Amino acid sequence: MRLSSRQFYVLRCRGTEPPFSGKYLRNKEKGVYHCAGCDAPLFSSEAKFNSGTGWPSFTEPIDKTSIEEEIDTSFGMIRTEVHCINLLP
Ligand SMILES: [Zn+2]
Question: Which H or E element spans position 11?
Fold first, then answer.
């Protein structure tokens, strides 16, 4: 699988896509969201909700062991970064 330049930036360089720019933000289709890097199933459409943040948001992952959370205190804010457990360092 080859990543697009934006996917590479987000998945391998710990980047963040601009808010309200993702193609799945307003997606209402039922299904499972897979990691673009390793294809692991991460989130169900059942857990998707409109957070108003500009990024797709989920109440919980399909399996807590398939994601990792890290506290990000940059920019004077306290945020929780959630990413696939298979993210390369
Ligand atoms: Zn992954």
Answer: helix 5-12
